[in-house]
Structure formats: C-alpha cells, structure tokens
Design brief:
Four copies of one chain form a homotetramer.
Chain A (H helix, E strand, L loop, with lengths): L1 E8 L4 E4 L4 E4 L4 H7 L5 E10 L6 H12 L5 E5 L5 H7 L7 E5 L12 H14 L3 E6 L2 E4 L3 E4 L4 E4 L2
Parallel strand pairs in A: 1-4, 1-5, 5-6, 6-7
Antiparallel strand pairs in A: 2-3, 7-8, 9-10
Chain lengths: 161, 161, 161, 161
C-alpha cells in the first residue's frame, strides 16, 4: 500500500513569527505526524505550494490536478487550507481510479491542541478504504468532496445537498 | 451519522502512578481526543472494561460481542490493548450490518508523542466508509480484522494470509 | 509563600483565529501552566491587559506600577510581551521590598513546543529567591531588569552594561 | 554563566515499554527541555545514573558528591527521582561555593501534562540566583534542601522544621 501526500499550505502548517507577530505557512507537518503515528506503509510527501487557501488560484488547482493525473499512485492525501478546500475538491473531480482525500486543520498542527493529527489519520484511512473519488476528511467526517462546505460561523464542515 | 465508542482499556489509556512507579489503565482518553479533533457528528462512549488486553478473557469477549449485537448502532469504534486486539476482532466477526473498527495505541494517549490520536482518527473514518465487517486500524493501516497480527518484535501490526 | 501574577498579554498568550488567519492575545495561560506544574503555594492571577507589548503605553506602565505599589504582596510575576519587556521593567524599578520578575515567551504557550512553561518556572523561582528588585527571566536566564535587552535578530534576551 | 546538569534517573525520565507494559528510566529529557526553552547560556549534561530513586545507594550518593566536589563548575542542576531526593540533598550539603539545585518530576517529562519543564525552569533560575548551598525545586517552590520532605499521600514536597 502506497499513499502520495501532497501539501499545499493552509492553517495545518502555520507557524508563528515572533519578530512580526504573525502567522505564516511553514514547513509541512505531515512527515512529523506520520512519524509519531508509527505508520508502517510506504509513502512519499510532495510539497506543491505553501499558501493560505484563499490565495489558491485556478492555475494552482490545474497544476494540482495535473500532478495527480500524471502520478502513477492511486491513493492521495492532499493537505490544504480550509477556506477553499471544497473548491479544490471540485477541481479534482472526475479522475478515474484515483482515491483523493483532502484534509487540513482548523487549529495549526504545531499547537498543543489541534485537529491536525486526527484529520490526517482520517484521511489516511479513507484513502485506503474509500472507492475512487474525491473526499474531504474534516470535523470527524469523510464527506463526498463535491457535496460539502465549510460553515465559517460554526467553524466546521458540513454536508450540502 | 452516529458512532458508538466502546473502551476496554489497553496502552492507549495508560496513566502513571508515581506512588507505585507503575502504569495502570486510567480513564479513557477517547472523549478528550474527539474534543480536540473538533468532531461534529453524534457519538456516545461506553466504558466496558479497563484492562490490559492480556487480561481479556473469553467471557469479556462474549460480553463485548453481546453488547455490539444488542446495540441499535451500526458503526462502532472499540479501543483495546494491542497484544490481543486480533483475538477480540476474531470474536466480533460475523455480525451482519455492523461496521466495527478496533484501534488502540503503542504509546499512551497521555504522552506528548503518541499514535493514539491518529489511530482514533483512522478508526472513525473507517467506521464511516468501510462496509460492514470487523477491522483493525493500527500502524497507519486499516486491516481486515481476521487477517492481521501484532508483530511484537517490530512493534507494528501487519497483514497475514 | 504567596505570589501575585499579573498578566498583560504578549506572545505567551497568543491564540490563532482561523476565521481571520491571525493571532490575537487570548485568555492567559498562567493558571493552566501552574496547574500542570502541580504547584503547592498560594497565588492569585490578575489580568491587567491583553496587549501586544508594542501597544503598551506609558499610561499602561504607570497603571501597572501603581497596581504593584498598592498591592500588599511582596512577590510578583508579570507576564508580558517580549518586545518592550525591558521598558516595562525599567518603569517598575525603585519599589522597595518588592521582588518583581517579568517573563513571557518567544513561542506561544499554546504551542506544542514553547518556552512559556520553562520561563514561568524560572520566574516563580526567582520571585522566591531573589532579593527585592526588578528582574527579567527569559532565554534561560534571570537578568537584572534594568540591564537587559531583547536581541531581535538572534531572538533572545542578553545582558547589557 | 555556566550550569552543569547531572542526571540520575527518576520519574522525570521515565519511558513506557509497550512490550513489557512497564515504565523504565530512559534517556534524559534535560537537553530536549533546554532546547524547547530557547536557553542562551552555556551548559553541559552529565548522565551519571539511570535509576529509580528508591534504588540510589549510599555509594551512588558518594559518587555524586565527589563528582560535584571535583567539578570546576559552581552551579549545578541535578535531576533525580522524587522519593529519595531529600536524602541525596542531605548527602550534598556542606560543599563551599557550590549552588546545587535538585529537581525532578511527579509526572514524566514525556507526558503531555507534566511538571518536568516547569521544575527544570525553577532549578535553572535558582542555580543562578541562590547563594551557595543545596536546594530542592519542586511543587512550585525552592526549598532549603535540608529542610524538605516529599509528602507521598499529598503527592507534593513541603518544608519541614
């Protein structure tokens, strides 16, 4: 079993720069998370972008889709900012024979209290178990990636019809 | 979506008693893990045992099976010690219409570095996505619960034929 | 032994607001830190400000000085942002019979990796052991509060002549 | 400013061996703690023993005393199990010109919730600020090392007359 991880930025990888008193996207925490999780499957991590998801463009989404399409792997976990995660999921729809799970975090992985580790765990399981398609693993749930939205007020993901 | 969590003890819930310089099974960390994960689905946690898995008896496994069988829920996550997790999975086989995922940890959930949070994340995703059956979510993988063993030397779970 | 803690904000208490993708000063982490440290002395926590230290004004420093001066306590730990911590230390000089230790953090207390807990530990010890005066406990050291500066480039505090 | 750290074992450095379901003294966490604390002073760590403090013998205490006596350093932090920490403090009394602070933890440093980091912070401050002598930094307090005991029932250190 092999999973390709593709990191694009987002809150999950935010770090704090004291000098400027602000957050920026830092090095991906995915390898660290997989190491602590004592995983015993083959994987590789590709860092494609380091962006807030509000800064992801159509060109970025096309580049991501091409990357997945041209990759021999069939299972993908994509870490992504939460605000436009559903848009990127939509842009990845329709790739036959690929199980693609997007995930991220509402609280940075570098925090003591974070949803990042749990979310990556969900995504890894869904990438193995779910049939080909695009999914979003957030808020404790594995959603159809084309039928989900972030409810910003409630700070959670929820299914839409 | 509703998941019933059943806790039985094991390393995942170990605490340290300084007075005796030893570990014992403490209160389950599952609710704490789900809270940090910001999950937004309905769940309930039943604490059935607080045992090292080496102390789980056939009677315990029968009691667990009865509990699952008589429960209206269809999705279950069972936290369990790792040494006999596969035995308990075997004892839960053959229950129609129930997706049962066993998980636990090689390092206690109360440690700074632990596989517990990731593993519960995997189990929660598998309980939603996998067809009815018994599974073990450990070592980054979702195994058929009747075809997996703990490799104690390598400290990981692996598939068996 | 009694210590009065006064919190004024700063990086130590920063939280992350996903909705705005930015950090703000949150509720003080001092009580949480003292709880985990299993301290067994009497203390009280006063939250005076919730400010980045760059926003601390002369009026704020006067208010802080008055607060300390009019307080019956003789031992104080003041949590504070790092950028102007030395300015506030200077503004607290000359209060007889009071041992005042300022501390804070270069990395927020809510992070998995933070200097906050260690720094508060240093400050608590210095408030007990040091003679009356003003001190800064940062970068593993207890400095004379009137002879220290933050070296922003090196991201550490250092003594000045 | 230079501090010599001497590690002797104890709960602070306990790790969990899943294979045997028990705790043992692992590699010292002191360097890790100092690294996270972003300390900027010179130090060196000597690992003298890896023992539960109940296993510390008179010969061990003599060896520790000799080590300190023959060391050029004047500031020491000794990490130690809590049960006999006061005995070891007594065995270190009477060394002129040396400030020796013993500390440890009631909960292992590898736990998410631990007093270890705070305690080492207290010890580092006391080693700088306190006059020559032997001290114990535990339970949020810096005690005279010859006038303190562990109250096992209350799980804290307290002064004795």
């Amino acid at each position: 079993m092999f999973i390709r991880f593709i990191t694009t930025g987002g809150t999950i990888d935010k770090i704090y720069f004291d000098a400027m008193s602000r957050f920026e996207v830092g090095e991906s925490q995915v390898k660290h998370i997989l190491g602590e999780a004592l995983v015993a499957f083959d994987f590789d991590v590709v860092s494609l972008f380091r962006k807030d998801s509000l800064d992801m463009t159509d060109a970025d989404r096309s580049a991501l889709r091409s990357h997945v399409e041209n990759d021999d792997a069939t299972r993908f976990v994509v870490t992504h900012g939460t605000d436009t995660m559903a848009d990127t999921a939509a842009a990845l729809a329709g790739l036959d024979d690929k199980t693609i799970v997007l995930t991220g975090a509402l609280s940075p992985a570098r925090f003591r209290s974070t949803d990042a580790v749990f979310n990556v765990g969900m995504a890894v399981a869904a990438a193995q178990v779910a049939p080909p398609g695009v999914y979003i693993a957030m808020s404790g749930q594995v959603f159809d990636g084309t039928k989900v939205r972030k409810n910003r007020e409630a700070n959670r993901f929820e299914a839409v019809e």
